[in-house]
Amino acid sequence: MLHHCALCHIDLDRISVRRGGQVLLQDVSMHIHCGQLTVLIGQNGAGKTTLIRALLGQIPHTGTIRHVDSHGLDIPHLRTGYVPQHLQFDHEMPLTVQDFMAASFSSRPVWTGVGKKTRAAVRLALEDVDAGELADTPLGRCSGGELQRVLLALALHPAPDLLVLDEPVSGIDRNGLRLFLDTLIRLRKTHHMAILLVSHDLRFVREYADHVILLEKSVLAQGTPGEVFSSPEFSAVFGTGDGEEEENA
Amino acid sequence: MDGIYSVLEAILPLEAFRFDFMKNALLAVLLLTPLLGLLGTMAVNHQMAFFSDALGHSALTGIGLGIILGLRNDLVAMLVFGIIWAVMICLIKQSGSASTDTIISVFSSTSVAAGLLILARGGKFAKYSSLLIGDILAVTPTDLLYLLLALAGTVVLWIILYNALLLTSVDSFLARSRGVPTRLIECGFVVLVAVAVMLSIRWVGVMLINALLILPAAAGRNLARTSRQHAAWSVGIAMVSGITGLTAAFYLDTSAGATIVLISALLYAVSLMIRNIRK
Fold first, then answer.
1. Which residues pair with residue A213 across a beta bridge?
2. Cβ-count burial A85-117 (b if 16+ within 10 Å, e if not)
3. Mutate to test the interface with A, among B228, B271, B276 (most CBs of A within 10 A)
4. Which candidate from A80, A96, A104 shows the least CB-CB separation from B225?
5. B225 contacts on A by Cβ (under 8 Å)
6. Which of A103, A114, A154 sits opposite B166 (nearest CB)?
7. Helix residue spans in chain A (DSSP H)
8. Section B18-36 average pLDDT
9. A145: helix, strand or coil
10. Which of A10, B176, B200, B245 is a plausible cystine mate for B263, CB 3.0–4.6 Å?
Protein backbone atom coordinates (compact mmCIF):
# COMPACT_ATOMS: atom_id res chain seq x y z
CA MET A 1 0.00 0.00 0.00
CA LEU A 2 2.89 2.35 0.71
CA HIS A 3 4.50 3.17 -2.58
CA HIS A 4 7.61 5.19 -3.20
CA CYS A 5 6.98 8.88 -3.66
CA ALA A 6 9.16 11.41 -5.36
CA LEU A 7 8.94 13.87 -2.49
CA CYS A 8 9.99 13.83 1.11
CA HIS A 9 7.84 12.29 3.80
CA ILE A 10 7.54 11.75 7.51
CA ASP A 11 8.11 8.14 8.42
CA LEU A 12 6.49 6.78 11.59
CA ASP A 13 7.87 3.40 12.52
CA ARG A 14 6.19 1.26 15.20
CA ILE A 15 5.03 4.09 17.42
CA SER A 16 3.62 2.83 20.72
CA VAL A 17 2.32 4.79 23.67
CA ARG A 18 1.55 3.30 27.06
CA ARG A 19 0.17 5.09 30.04
CA GLY A 20 -0.45 3.55 33.44
CA GLY A 21 -0.17 0.00 32.11
CA GLN A 22 -2.71 0.77 29.39
CA VAL A 23 -1.77 0.56 25.71
CA LEU A 24 -2.98 3.70 23.93
CA LEU A 25 -1.15 3.06 20.67
CA GLN A 26 0.39 -0.18 19.46
CA ASP A 27 3.01 -0.31 16.69
CA VAL A 28 1.60 2.47 14.54
CA SER A 29 3.54 2.77 11.28
CA MET A 30 2.73 5.16 8.46
CA HIS A 31 4.16 7.54 5.90
CA ILE A 32 2.84 11.08 5.74
CA HIS A 33 3.79 12.47 2.35
CA CYS A 34 4.69 15.99 1.47
CA GLY A 35 2.11 17.61 -0.79
CA GLN A 36 -0.62 15.22 0.31
CA LEU A 37 -3.59 15.54 2.60
CA THR A 38 -3.44 12.53 4.91
CA VAL A 39 -6.56 12.05 7.00
CA LEU A 40 -6.70 10.10 10.22
CA ILE A 41 -10.08 8.54 11.04
CA GLY A 42 -11.29 6.29 13.81
CA GLN A 43 -13.73 6.09 16.70
CA ASN A 44 -13.47 8.24 19.79
CA GLY A 45 -10.74 6.81 21.97
CA ALA A 46 -9.01 5.17 19.00
CA GLY A 47 -5.82 7.08 19.86
CA LYS A 48 -5.95 9.85 17.25
CA THR A 49 -5.16 12.65 19.67
CA THR A 50 -2.54 10.49 21.38
CA LEU A 51 -0.82 9.97 18.04
CA ILE A 52 -0.81 13.71 17.39
CA ARG A 53 0.68 14.42 20.81
CA ALA A 54 3.38 11.85 20.17
CA LEU A 55 4.09 13.43 16.78
CA LEU A 56 4.38 16.85 18.39
CA GLY A 57 6.78 15.43 20.96
CA GLN A 58 4.48 16.18 23.89
CA ILE A 59 4.11 12.67 25.27
CA PRO A 60 6.70 9.90 25.54
CA HIS A 61 6.51 7.10 22.97
CA THR A 62 8.56 4.22 21.64
CA GLY A 63 9.36 3.74 17.97
CA THR A 64 10.85 6.32 15.63
CA ILE A 65 9.67 9.37 13.76
CA ARG A 66 11.94 10.28 10.85
CA HIS A 67 11.83 13.09 8.38
CA VAL A 68 13.09 11.62 5.13
CA ASP A 69 13.91 13.26 1.80
CA SER A 70 13.22 11.88 -1.68
CA HIS A 71 16.44 9.82 -1.61
CA GLY A 72 15.59 8.19 1.69
CA LEU A 73 18.10 10.32 3.60
CA ASP A 74 17.29 11.76 7.01
CA ILE A 75 16.46 15.45 7.26
CA PRO A 76 17.60 16.45 10.73
CA HIS A 77 14.69 18.66 11.75
CA LEU A 78 10.99 18.13 11.61
CA ARG A 79 9.20 21.40 12.07
CA THR A 80 5.56 20.88 12.97
CA GLY A 81 2.71 23.35 12.80
CA TYR A 82 -0.29 22.55 14.94
CA VAL A 83 -3.91 23.63 14.73
CA PRO A 84 -5.72 22.58 17.91
CA GLN A 85 -9.30 21.44 18.03
CA HIS A 86 -10.36 24.54 19.88
CA LEU A 87 -8.88 27.14 22.19
CA GLN A 88 -9.83 27.33 25.83
CA PHE A 89 -9.38 30.98 26.54
CA ASP A 90 -11.05 33.93 28.17
CA HIS A 91 -13.16 35.43 25.37
CA GLU A 92 -13.33 38.82 27.05
CA MET A 93 -9.56 39.26 27.02
CA PRO A 94 -8.56 42.52 25.30
CA LEU A 95 -6.63 40.89 22.50
CA THR A 96 -7.05 41.28 18.76
CA VAL A 97 -6.18 38.65 16.19
CA GLN A 98 -3.25 40.88 15.26
CA ASP A 99 -1.98 40.98 18.87
CA PHE A 100 -2.32 37.22 19.16
CA MET A 101 -0.37 36.57 15.97
CA ALA A 102 2.21 39.29 16.62
CA ALA A 103 3.11 37.63 19.94
CA SER A 104 4.47 34.74 17.85
CA PHE A 105 5.73 36.73 14.88
CA SER A 106 7.88 39.24 16.70
CA SER A 107 9.92 39.45 19.87
CA ARG A 108 8.64 42.94 20.56
CA PRO A 109 6.21 42.61 23.48
CA VAL A 110 2.67 43.13 22.27
CA TRP A 111 1.83 45.46 25.15
CA THR A 112 4.09 48.06 23.61
CA GLY A 113 2.15 47.81 20.36
CA VAL A 114 2.67 46.06 17.03
CA GLY A 115 5.28 47.39 14.61
CA LYS A 116 4.64 48.15 10.95
CA LYS A 117 6.67 45.21 9.65
CA THR A 118 4.95 42.76 11.96
CA ARG A 119 1.55 44.18 11.04
CA ALA A 120 2.30 43.60 7.36
CA ALA A 121 3.55 40.07 8.03
CA VAL A 122 0.43 39.24 10.07
CA ARG A 123 -1.86 40.58 7.34
CA LEU A 124 -0.04 38.55 4.71
CA ALA A 125 -0.29 35.40 6.82
CA LEU A 126 -4.00 35.96 7.34
CA GLU A 127 -4.62 36.66 3.67
CA ASP A 128 -2.89 33.38 2.87
CA VAL A 129 -5.77 31.59 4.61
CA ASP A 130 -8.46 33.97 3.29
CA ALA A 131 -8.80 35.76 6.61
CA GLY A 132 -7.17 39.12 5.87
CA GLU A 133 -10.13 41.03 7.26
CA LEU A 134 -9.78 39.52 10.73
CA ALA A 135 -6.62 41.34 11.85
CA ASP A 136 -8.41 43.90 14.01
CA THR A 137 -11.15 41.61 15.31
CA PRO A 138 -10.89 40.70 18.99
CA LEU A 139 -9.89 37.03 19.24
CA GLY A 140 -12.86 36.32 21.51
CA ARG A 141 -15.32 37.59 18.89
CA CYS A 142 -14.15 35.26 16.12
CA SER A 143 -16.59 32.54 15.08
CA GLY A 144 -15.46 28.91 15.18
CA GLY A 145 -14.57 28.99 11.50
CA GLU A 146 -12.72 32.30 11.75
CA LEU A 147 -10.72 31.09 14.73
CA GLN A 148 -9.67 27.99 12.80
CA ARG A 149 -8.35 30.19 10.01
CA VAL A 150 -6.41 32.32 12.47
CA LEU A 151 -4.93 29.20 14.07
CA LEU A 152 -4.07 27.85 10.65
CA ALA A 153 -2.32 31.10 9.71
CA LEU A 154 -0.35 30.86 12.95
CA ALA A 155 0.55 27.20 12.38
CA LEU A 156 1.95 28.07 8.95
CA HIS A 157 4.52 30.43 10.50
CA PRO A 158 7.32 29.52 10.64
CA ALA A 159 6.68 27.29 7.60
CA PRO A 160 6.21 23.72 8.90
CA ASP A 161 7.33 20.47 7.26
CA LEU A 162 4.30 18.81 8.78
CA LEU A 163 1.01 20.56 9.46
CA VAL A 164 -1.12 18.75 12.03
CA LEU A 165 -4.78 19.63 12.43
CA ASP A 166 -6.76 18.11 15.26
CA GLU A 167 -10.43 17.84 14.35
CA PRO A 168 -10.62 21.42 13.11
CA VAL A 169 -14.19 20.82 12.06
CA SER A 170 -16.10 20.82 15.34
CA GLY A 171 -18.07 23.99 15.94
CA ILE A 172 -18.06 24.94 12.28
CA ASP A 173 -21.03 24.62 9.92
CA ARG A 174 -20.69 22.56 6.76
CA ASN A 175 -20.16 25.60 4.59
CA GLY A 176 -17.38 26.88 6.79
CA LEU A 177 -15.87 23.42 6.83
CA ARG A 178 -15.92 23.19 3.04
CA LEU A 179 -14.21 26.58 2.76
CA PHE A 180 -11.61 25.52 5.31
CA LEU A 181 -10.88 22.28 3.46
CA ASP A 182 -10.67 24.16 0.14
CA THR A 183 -8.05 26.38 1.74
CA LEU A 184 -6.14 23.33 2.97
CA ILE A 185 -6.23 21.73 -0.47
CA ARG A 186 -4.86 24.93 -1.99
CA LEU A 187 -2.11 25.24 0.65
CA ARG A 188 -1.14 21.61 0.09
CA LYS A 189 -0.15 22.60 -3.43
CA THR A 190 1.42 25.98 -2.74
CA HIS A 191 3.37 25.17 0.44
CA HIS A 192 6.02 22.52 0.64
CA MET A 193 4.60 20.47 3.50
CA ALA A 194 2.76 17.34 4.52
CA ILE A 195 -0.67 17.68 6.12
CA LEU A 196 -2.15 15.33 8.70
CA LEU A 197 -5.79 15.99 9.48
CA VAL A 198 -7.89 14.28 12.13
CA SER A 199 -11.41 14.27 10.80
CA HIS A 200 -14.81 13.06 11.89
CA ASP A 201 -16.69 14.02 8.78
CA LEU A 202 -16.40 10.94 6.61
CA ARG A 203 -18.23 12.46 3.67
CA PHE A 204 -15.61 15.19 3.37
CA VAL A 205 -12.81 12.69 3.93
CA ARG A 206 -13.98 10.75 0.89
CA GLU A 207 -14.02 13.93 -1.15
CA TYR A 208 -10.80 15.62 -0.05
CA ALA A 209 -8.30 13.11 1.32
CA ASP A 210 -5.34 11.86 -0.71
CA HIS A 211 -4.55 9.18 1.81
CA VAL A 212 -6.71 7.80 4.62
CA ILE A 213 -5.55 6.01 7.73
CA LEU A 214 -8.03 4.11 9.87
CA LEU A 215 -6.77 3.94 13.43
CA GLU A 216 -7.92 1.77 16.30
CA LYS A 217 -4.94 1.66 18.70
CA SER A 218 -3.00 0.46 15.66
CA VAL A 219 -3.46 1.03 11.94
CA LEU A 220 -6.38 -1.11 10.73
CA ALA A 221 -6.34 0.04 7.13
CA GLN A 222 -4.73 2.71 4.99
CA GLY A 223 -4.79 3.78 1.37
CA THR A 224 -6.92 5.92 -0.92
CA PRO A 225 -10.36 6.88 0.41
CA GLY A 226 -11.91 4.32 -1.91
CA GLU A 227 -9.66 1.52 -0.69
CA VAL A 228 -10.17 2.27 2.99
CA PHE A 229 -13.92 2.92 2.79
CA SER A 230 -14.51 -0.43 1.08
CA SER A 231 -12.31 -2.41 3.44
CA PRO A 232 -13.82 -4.91 5.87
CA GLU A 233 -11.99 -3.11 8.70
CA PHE A 234 -13.86 0.09 7.88
CA SER A 235 -17.20 -1.74 7.97
CA ALA A 236 -16.25 -3.29 11.28
CA VAL A 237 -15.54 0.11 12.82
CA PHE A 238 -18.14 2.34 11.19
CA GLY A 239 -20.90 -0.08 10.12
CA THR A 240 -22.19 -0.17 6.55
CA GLY A 241 -19.08 1.20 4.96
CA ASP A 242 -20.41 3.91 2.66
CA GLY A 243 -19.86 6.56 5.29
CA GLU A 244 -22.76 8.71 4.09
CA GLU A 245 -24.74 8.62 7.32
CA GLU A 246 -21.68 9.06 9.49
CA GLU A 247 -21.53 12.59 10.77
CA ASN A 248 -19.92 12.22 14.12
CA ALA A 249 -18.47 8.79 14.40
CA MET B 1 16.75 64.43 45.35
CA ASP B 2 16.32 68.21 45.68
CA GLY B 3 16.13 68.53 41.91
CA ILE B 4 13.32 65.96 41.75
CA TYR B 5 11.54 67.69 44.64
CA SER B 6 11.55 71.06 42.88
CA VAL B 7 10.23 69.49 39.69
CA LEU B 8 7.38 67.93 41.67
CA GLU B 9 6.58 71.27 43.30
CA ALA B 10 6.47 72.92 39.89
CA ILE B 11 4.11 70.28 38.48
CA LEU B 12 1.90 69.98 41.53
CA PRO B 13 1.72 73.40 43.19
CA LEU B 14 -0.42 72.13 46.05
CA GLU B 15 0.06 72.78 49.72
CA ALA B 16 0.14 69.04 50.34
CA PHE B 17 3.32 68.58 48.35
CA ARG B 18 5.30 71.19 50.21
CA PHE B 19 6.16 68.48 52.70
CA ASP B 20 9.04 66.14 51.90
CA PHE B 21 7.20 63.07 53.22
CA MET B 22 4.40 63.81 50.77
CA LYS B 23 6.86 64.22 47.94
CA ASN B 24 8.44 60.89 48.83
CA ALA B 25 5.02 59.27 49.03
CA LEU B 26 4.12 60.72 45.65
CA LEU B 27 7.32 59.38 44.10
CA ALA B 28 6.60 55.98 45.62
CA VAL B 29 3.13 56.09 44.09
CA LEU B 30 4.59 57.06 40.72
CA LEU B 31 6.89 54.02 40.86
CA LEU B 32 4.51 51.48 42.37
CA THR B 33 1.35 52.12 40.40
CA PRO B 34 2.77 51.54 36.89
CA LEU B 35 4.50 48.39 38.17
CA LEU B 36 1.29 46.95 39.60
CA GLY B 37 -0.78 48.23 36.70
CA LEU B 38 1.41 46.44 34.17
CA LEU B 39 1.58 43.13 36.05
CA GLY B 40 -2.13 43.37 36.81
CA THR B 41 -3.09 43.06 33.15
CA MET B 42 -1.76 39.53 32.98
CA ALA B 43 -2.95 38.62 36.48
CA VAL B 44 -6.46 39.51 35.32
CA ASN B 45 -6.14 37.75 31.95
CA HIS B 46 -4.54 34.71 33.52
CA GLN B 47 -7.32 34.59 36.12
CA MET B 48 -4.90 34.92 38.99
CA ALA B 49 -6.60 37.61 41.06
CA PHE B 50 -7.05 35.26 43.95
CA PHE B 51 -3.47 34.10 43.65
CA SER B 52 -1.95 37.53 44.20
CA ASP B 53 -4.21 37.91 47.21
CA ALA B 54 -2.71 34.75 48.68
CA LEU B 55 0.76 36.08 47.97
CA GLY B 56 -0.01 39.27 49.88
CA HIS B 57 -1.11 37.22 52.84
CA SER B 58 2.08 35.20 52.73
CA ALA B 59 4.01 38.35 53.60
CA LEU B 60 2.84 37.88 57.18
CA THR B 61 4.48 34.45 57.33
CA GLY B 62 7.59 35.82 55.65
CA ILE B 63 8.04 38.45 58.32
CA GLY B 64 7.23 35.95 61.05
CA LEU B 65 9.87 33.54 59.78
CA GLY B 66 12.31 36.41 59.45
CA ILE B 67 11.84 37.16 63.14
CA ILE B 68 12.29 33.51 64.14
CA LEU B 69 15.44 33.22 62.04
CA GLY B 70 16.70 36.51 63.46
CA LEU B 71 16.87 38.30 60.10
CA ARG B 72 17.32 42.04 60.52
CA ASN B 73 15.76 42.92 57.21
CA ASP B 74 12.03 42.25 56.90
CA LEU B 75 12.09 42.81 53.18
CA VAL B 76 14.59 40.04 52.49
CA ALA B 77 12.58 37.60 54.61
CA MET B 78 9.38 38.56 52.80
CA LEU B 79 10.96 38.33 49.36
CA VAL B 80 12.54 34.94 49.95
CA PHE B 81 9.43 33.47 51.50
CA GLY B 82 7.16 35.07 48.90
CA ILE B 83 9.16 33.61 46.03
CA ILE B 84 9.29 30.13 47.60
CA TRP B 85 5.57 30.29 48.29
CA ALA B 86 4.83 31.45 44.74
CA VAL B 87 6.86 28.68 43.14
CA MET B 88 5.21 26.10 45.38
CA ILE B 89 1.71 27.26 44.39
CA CYS B 90 2.80 27.24 40.76
CA LEU B 91 4.21 23.71 40.88
CA ILE B 92 1.22 22.29 42.72
CA LYS B 93 -1.12 24.03 40.30
CA GLN B 94 0.76 22.53 37.34
CA SER B 95 0.60 19.05 38.82
CA GLY B 96 -3.17 19.44 38.48
CA SER B 97 -4.02 17.68 41.73
CA ALA B 98 -6.90 20.00 42.65
CA SER B 99 -8.61 23.09 41.25
CA THR B 100 -6.55 26.26 41.36
CA ASP B 101 -9.04 28.01 43.63
CA THR B 102 -8.76 25.26 46.20
CA ILE B 103 -4.96 25.18 46.11
CA ILE B 104 -4.66 28.93 46.49
CA SER B 105 -7.16 28.97 49.31
CA VAL B 106 -5.20 26.31 51.18
CA PHE B 107 -1.98 28.29 50.77
CA SER B 108 -3.58 31.58 51.65
CA SER B 109 -5.17 30.44 54.89
CA THR B 110 -2.10 28.47 55.92
CA SER B 111 0.17 31.47 55.49
CA VAL B 112 -2.15 33.83 57.34
CA ALA B 113 -2.47 31.40 60.24
CA ALA B 114 1.28 30.74 60.38
CA GLY B 115 2.03 34.45 60.20
CA LEU B 116 -0.43 35.32 62.95
CA LEU B 117 0.82 32.48 65.13
CA ILE B 118 4.34 33.90 65.07
CA LEU B 119 3.59 37.63 65.06
CA ALA B 120 0.89 37.53 67.73
CA ARG B 121 2.95 35.62 70.26
CA GLY B 122 2.51 37.17 73.72
CA GLY B 123 -0.12 39.58 72.36
CA LYS B 124 2.41 41.65 70.47
CA PHE B 125 0.60 41.82 67.14
CA ALA B 126 -0.13 45.56 67.50
CA LYS B 127 3.53 46.13 66.69
CA TYR B 128 2.94 44.67 63.21
CA SER B 129 -0.53 45.98 62.52
CA SER B 130 0.87 48.64 60.19
CA LEU B 131 1.65 45.75 57.81
CA LEU B 132 -2.05 45.22 57.35
CA ILE B 133 -2.82 48.73 56.18
CA GLY B 134 0.60 49.93 55.05
CA ASP B 135 2.08 53.40 55.50
CA ILE B 136 3.06 55.13 52.31
CA LEU B 137 3.91 58.35 54.14
CA ALA B 138 6.91 56.59 55.75
CA VAL B 139 8.78 56.07 52.45
CA THR B 140 12.40 57.25 52.54
CA PRO B 141 14.65 58.19 49.59
CA THR B 142 16.52 54.87 50.04
CA ASP B 143 13.23 52.98 49.71
CA LEU B 144 12.53 54.95 46.56
CA LEU B 145 15.79 53.77 45.06
CA TYR B 146 14.80 50.13 45.70
CA LEU B 147 11.41 50.77 44.13
CA LEU B 148 13.05 52.34 41.09
CA LEU B 149 15.30 49.31 40.66
CA ALA B 150 12.31 47.01 41.08
CA LEU B 151 10.34 48.91 38.46
CA ALA B 152 13.25 48.81 36.01
CA GLY B 153 13.79 45.07 36.61
CA THR B 154 10.11 44.32 36.19
CA VAL B 155 9.85 46.24 32.94
CA VAL B 156 12.86 44.38 31.53
CA LEU B 157 11.45 40.97 32.52
CA TRP B 158 8.04 42.04 31.30
CA ILE B 159 9.52 42.80 27.90
CA ILE B 160 11.20 39.38 27.74
CA LEU B 161 8.35 37.26 29.13
CA TYR B 162 5.22 38.95 27.85
CA ASN B 163 4.65 37.39 24.41
CA ALA B 164 5.29 33.87 25.64
CA LEU B 165 3.04 34.48 28.62
CA LEU B 166 0.31 35.85 26.39
CA LEU B 167 0.38 32.73 24.24
CA THR B 168 0.38 30.56 27.36
CA SER B 169 -2.61 32.36 28.80
CA VAL B 170 -4.57 31.90 25.57
CA ASP B 171 -3.83 28.16 25.32
CA SER B 172 -0.95 26.42 27.03
CA PHE B 173 -1.08 23.33 24.80
CA LEU B 174 -0.84 25.49 21.69
CA ALA B 175 1.97 27.48 23.29
CA ARG B 176 3.89 24.27 24.04
CA SER B 177 3.43 23.09 20.46
CA ARG B 178 5.17 26.31 19.42
CA GLY B 179 8.13 25.64 21.68
CA VAL B 180 7.17 27.92 24.57
CA PRO B 181 8.40 26.51 27.89
CA THR B 182 5.00 27.19 29.45
CA ARG B 183 5.75 25.94 32.96
CA LEU B 184 8.89 28.01 33.25
CA ILE B 185 7.12 31.07 31.87
CA GLU B 186 4.21 30.69 34.28
CA CYS B 187 6.55 30.33 37.25
CA GLY B 188 8.56 33.33 36.05
CA PHE B 189 5.43 35.44 36.02
CA VAL B 190 4.36 34.23 39.43
CA VAL B 191 7.77 35.11 40.87
CA LEU B 192 7.57 38.55 39.29
CA VAL B 193 4.20 39.17 40.91
CA ALA B 194 5.57 37.89 44.21
CA VAL B 195 8.46 40.36 44.09
CA ALA B 196 6.19 43.27 43.18
CA VAL B 197 3.74 42.40 45.94
CA MET B 198 6.44 42.03 48.60
CA LEU B 199 8.06 45.30 47.63
CA SER B 200 4.77 47.13 47.83
CA ILE B 201 3.34 45.64 50.94
CA ARG B 202 4.98 47.91 53.49
CA TRP B 203 3.52 50.92 51.74
CA VAL B 204 0.16 49.60 50.70
CA GLY B 205 -0.58 46.91 53.28
CA VAL B 206 -1.58 43.25 53.15
CA MET B 207 -5.26 44.07 52.95
CA LEU B 208 -5.09 46.44 50.01
CA ILE B 209 -2.21 45.25 47.85
CA ASN B 210 -4.36 42.97 45.75
CA ALA B 211 -6.84 45.74 45.02
CA LEU B 212 -4.05 47.85 43.52
CA LEU B 213 -2.91 44.99 41.36
CA ILE B 214 -6.34 43.92 40.16
CA LEU B 215 -8.64 46.97 40.07
CA PRO B 216 -6.81 49.12 37.49
CA ALA B 217 -6.23 46.12 35.22
CA ALA B 218 -9.84 45.02 35.56
CA ALA B 219 -11.03 48.55 34.74
CA GLY B 220 -8.62 48.75 31.80
CA ARG B 221 -9.98 45.47 30.48
CA ASN B 222 -13.43 47.02 30.26
CA LEU B 223 -12.15 49.83 28.07
CA ALA B 224 -9.45 48.19 25.93
CA ARG B 225 -9.65 46.23 22.70
CA THR B 226 -5.96 45.48 22.22
CA SER B 227 -3.11 44.38 24.49
CA ARG B 228 -1.48 47.76 24.16
CA GLN B 229 -4.63 49.63 25.13
CA HIS B 230 -5.05 47.29 28.09
CA ALA B 231 -1.55 48.07 29.37
CA ALA B 232 -2.01 51.81 28.76
CA TRP B 233 -5.42 52.03 30.46
CA SER B 234 -4.30 49.89 33.37
CA VAL B 235 -1.16 51.91 34.04
CA GLY B 236 -3.04 55.18 33.49
CA ILE B 237 -5.87 54.29 35.84
CA ALA B 238 -3.41 53.03 38.47
CA MET B 239 -1.39 56.26 38.33
CA VAL B 240 -4.41 58.56 38.35
CA SER B 241 -5.90 56.70 41.33
CA GLY B 242 -2.53 56.82 43.07
CA ILE B 243 -1.96 60.55 42.65
CA THR B 244 -5.53 61.69 43.34
CA GLY B 245 -5.89 59.21 46.20
CA LEU B 246 -2.72 60.38 47.90
CA THR B 247 -3.69 64.04 47.52
CA ALA B 248 -7.25 63.46 48.70
CA ALA B 249 -6.00 61.47 51.70
CA PHE B 250 -3.87 64.44 52.78
CA TYR B 251 -6.74 66.93 52.75
CA LEU B 252 -9.36 64.52 54.10
CA ASP B 253 -6.96 63.12 56.68
CA THR B 254 -7.75 59.53 55.63
CA SER B 255 -5.60 56.45 55.05
CA ALA B 256 -3.67 56.93 51.81
CA GLY B 257 -3.81 53.28 50.73
CA ALA B 258 -7.55 53.02 51.36
CA THR B 259 -8.27 56.28 49.54
CA ILE B 260 -6.24 55.17 46.50
CA VAL B 261 -8.04 51.83 46.37
CA LEU B 262 -11.47 53.48 46.70
CA ILE B 263 -10.68 55.78 43.79
CA SER B 264 -9.59 52.78 41.68
CA ALA B 265 -12.86 51.08 42.62
CA LEU B 266 -14.76 54.17 41.51
CA LEU B 267 -12.90 54.20 38.20
CA TYR B 268 -13.65 50.51 37.83
CA ALA B 269 -17.36 51.24 38.26
CA VAL B 270 -17.13 53.98 35.61
CA SER B 271 -15.32 51.63 33.22
CA LEU B 272 -18.04 49.03 33.71
CA MET B 273 -20.70 51.60 32.83
CA ILE B 274 -18.81 52.70 29.72
CA ARG B 275 -18.49 49.10 28.65
CA ASN B 276 -22.19 48.46 29.10
CA ILE B 277 -23.10 51.60 27.18
CA ARG B 278 -20.80 50.59 24.31
CA LYS B 279 -22.43 47.19 24.11
1. A40, A222
2. bebebeeebbbbbbbbbbbbbbebbbbebbeee
3. B228
4. A96
5. 94, 96, 138
6. A103
7. 48-55, 97-105, 116-128, 144-155, 174-190, 202-208, 225-229, 232-238
8. 92
9. helix
10. B245
Q: Does A167 touch chain B (CB under 8 A)?
A: no
Instruction: State which CATH number among 3.30.420.10, 3.30.230.10, 1.10.3470.10, 1.10.40.30 fits the domain covering B29-207.
Output: 1.10.3470.10
Q: Measured between alpha carbons, how far is A100 from A200 in angstroms, rounded to an integer? A: 28
Last residue of a domain, one of A158, A193, A209: A158
- For B123-180, write each residue's pLDDT tens digit: 777 778 778 888 888 899 988 998 899 889 988 999 999 999 999 999 988 999 899 9
| Complex-level ipTM | 0.87
Same structural domain, A219 and A234: yes
| CB atoms B228 and A107 under 8 Å | no
Among partner residues A89, A94, A106, which is closest to B226 by beta-carbon distance?
A94
pLDDT digits (tens, 9 = 90+) for A189-232: 888 899 999 988 888 899 899 999 999 999 999 999 999 999 99
A84, part of any domain: no
Task: Look at chain A and count its residues.
Answer: 249
Are A1 and A70 part of one and the same domain? yes
pLDDT at residue A240, rounded to an integer: 65
Q: Is the pLDDT of residue A137 over 60?
A: yes
Q: Does A139 touch chain B (CB under 8 A)?
A: yes
| Residue A84 at interface with chain B, using a CB cutoff of 8 Å | yes
The pTM assigned to this predicted structure is: 0.87
pLDDT, tens digit, 9 for 90 and up, residues B55-69:
888 888 888 888 888
Chain B positions in Cβ-Cβ contact with residue A106 (cut-off 8 Å): 163
Is there a contact between A37 and A209 (Cβ–Cβ < 8 Å)?
Answer: yes
Q: Predicted confidence band at A2 (pLDDT cuts at 50, 70, 90)?
A: very low
Indicate yes or no: CB of B177 within 8 angstroms of CB of A87. no
